[in-house]
């Protein structure tokens, strides 16, 4: 699914309001972001396409009653581009060929890149927090800036991320994200209460 279509317009407005409400009592800045995937997984795409082309080639050779290496190998080469196009068209077919560690690392790297690309590191008190959702991998990563990490342990973010990921898998994406935003805001308010001169430094809208 395209990231921009995962949440409806009404749900995006709910998420925006949830971020605004969470930031009302803290100087922290919460940013929500959803992407279709965190990597193209080219190695999985190639491996999957080779296996798909190989299986189809065997089936074709059997139908033609001509199962020889001289039939099989040319068929694999001929069918490979079409098989690769299918893998690209249906990205979830790549997942069986990607290890869990590779998936987790890809999402983490994409979240870190988004953190810097979207300017979360530039807040006045280093209190930016990114709630990052990657749809293909069904994974959530929550990143806090240096000021936040000095006071809030990583385990807190991991717990919130796990609850949000579970909510998305159960079809409660909007509710789960709003709850994660509220939980994030409550914890930030404990350590970083809103200052009199606080301004909204980052957008409250869901990023894609």
Notes on the protein architecture:
57% of the residues lie in helices and 10% in strands. It has eight helices and three strands. Strands 1-2-3 form a three-stranded mixed sheet, sandwiched between helices.
Strand order of the largest sheet: 1-2-3
How much β-strand is present in the residues? 5-15%
Shape summary:
elongated
Extended strand count: 3
Structural class by helix and strand composition: mainly alpha
N→C terminal distance: 12 Å
Rg from Cα: 22 Å
Mean pLDDT: 92
Q: Tell me the number of helical segments per DSSP (H or I, 4 or more residues long).
A: 8
Measured as a percent range, the helix fraction is 55-70%
Unreliable stretches covering 5 or more consecutive residues: none
Largest beta-sheet details: 3 strands, mixed
Secondary-structure element series: HHEHHHEEHHH
What's this, in brief?
Helix content is 57%, strand content 10%.
Features:
3-stranded mixed sheet; 10% strand; 208 residues; mainly alpha
Helix and strand arrangement:
Layout: H1 3-6, H2 9-23, E1 29-35, H3 42-63, H4 69-89, H5 100-117, E2 128-134, E3 139-144, H6 146-149, H7 154-169, H8 173-191
Parallel strand pairs: 1-2
Antiparallel strand pairs: 2-3
Helix pairs in contact: 2-8, 3-4, 7-8
